[in-house]
């Protein structure tokens, strides 16, 4: 049943965007978090355009079922276990991707995310939201860089696409959220701002990583067509809200945030337009940012102005390297 607070969200722009995307025959696309939400729409759309899709998900019955459903629909998919809350799982997944895609990865879409979770540590000691949303994607991108380079060498282009959020706006980046201090960051008492501040920091990290990666990319990779791009979905009925509520998002503040998002949200299909445009539209440039314009309103994905902060980008890169153990982002730490 629908209501003014929980309307039905039907796609408005999605079909037109997909109709304008090129064939992906002969391309391999990797995406994290494809069991539901924007990741599921992204994976099925990439497959419908002819891509071979590598599905990077934490092992679960839902991951198995979603891969099976895509295969039943005729998609060429390669499911690979990847738990973003464990750095060792990310390293093992990268090795599996290298074996499964020796001809390279044309697009790595760092889509997976969690939202509004309590102050708990991962097995690596990091905040669960920051490790899932940013740190493990930082590590995964480093490990898969040679596969991206191989694809750009062979086919003239490869892209890393990060998925930020309107929640990126807020406090400046702080190193503490990137360090292994999970469970000690606080703020979960009344009124409960802490979980949302940690989410905001992780989504800001996604955008800062895009710019930092662009600036640090080896010139040889840039010349062969490597690109670092970002998108945000706008307010989207993606299923994250239900997961937040299921994880204990029952405070008045939590309910208010989730209710407001769902009241103005667009469909999950329309929320996927940003990463689809960033990943597959022709003539996308390195360092660009796509998503609905405005502050928290739904709408079509458009090219947005840069949101640069060089000092925060340096901080993000340096602390992320230390926390993940990456010592040579573009070389020696790679999976191949």
TrEMBL record:
<protein>
    <submittedName>
        <fullName>Short-chain dehydrogenase</fullName>
    </submittedName>
</protein>
<keyword id="KW-0560">Oxidoreductase</keyword>
<dbReference type="InterPro" id="IPR002347">
    <property type="entry name" value="SDR_fam"/>
</dbReference>
<dbReference type="GO" id="GO:0016491">
    <property type="term" value="F:oxidoreductase activity"/>
</dbReference>
<dbReference type="InterPro" id="IPR036291">
    <property type="entry name" value="NAD(P)-bd_dom_sf"/>
</dbReference>
<comment type="similarity">
    <text>Belongs to the short-chain dehydrogenases/reductases (SDR) family.</text>
</comment>
<dbReference type="Pfam" id="PF00106">
    <property type="entry name" value="adh_short"/>
</dbReference>
């Amino acid at each position: 049943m629908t209501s003014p607070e929980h309307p039905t969200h039907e796609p408005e722009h999605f079909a037109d965007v997909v109709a304008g995307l090129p064939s992906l025959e002969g391309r391999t696309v990797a995406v994290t978090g494809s069991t539901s939400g924007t990741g599921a729409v992204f994976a099925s759309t990439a497959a419908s355009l002819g891509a071979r899709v590598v599905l990077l998900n934490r092992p679960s019955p839902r991951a198995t079922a979603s891969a099976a459903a895509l295969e039943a629909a005729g998609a060429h998919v390669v499911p690979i276990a990847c738990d973003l809350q464990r750095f060792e799982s990310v390293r093992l997944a990268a090795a599996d991707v290298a074996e499964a895609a020796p001809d390279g990865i044309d697009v790595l879409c760092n889509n997976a995310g969690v939202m509004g979770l309590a102050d708990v540590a991962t097995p690596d000691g990091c905040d669960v939201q920051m490790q899932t949303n940013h740190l493990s994607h930082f590590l995964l991108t480093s490990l898969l860089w040679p596969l991206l380079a191989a694809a750009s060498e062979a086919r003239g282009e490869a892209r890393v696409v990060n998925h930020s959020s309107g929640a990126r706006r807020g406090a400046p980046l702080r190193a503490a959220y990137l360090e292994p201090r999970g469970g000690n960051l606080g703020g979960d008492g009344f009124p409960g701002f802490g979980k949302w501040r940690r989410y905001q920091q992780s989504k800001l990290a996604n955008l800062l990583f895009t710019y930092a990666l662009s600036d640090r990319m080896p010139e040889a990779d840039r010349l062969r067509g490597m690109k670092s791009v970002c998108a945000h979905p706008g307010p989207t009925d993606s299923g994250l809200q239900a997961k937040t509520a299921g994880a204990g998002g029952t405070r008045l503040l939590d309910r208010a945030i989730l209710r407001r998002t769902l009241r103005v949200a667009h469909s999950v299909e329309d929320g996927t337009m940003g990463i689809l445009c960033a990943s597959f539209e022709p003539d996308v440039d390195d360092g660009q940012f796509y998503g609905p314009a405005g502050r928290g309103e739904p709408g079509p994905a458009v090219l947005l102005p840069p949101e640069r902060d060089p000092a925060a980008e340096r901080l993000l890169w340096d602390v992320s390297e230390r926390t993940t153990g990456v010592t040579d982002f573009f070389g020696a730490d790679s999976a191949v």
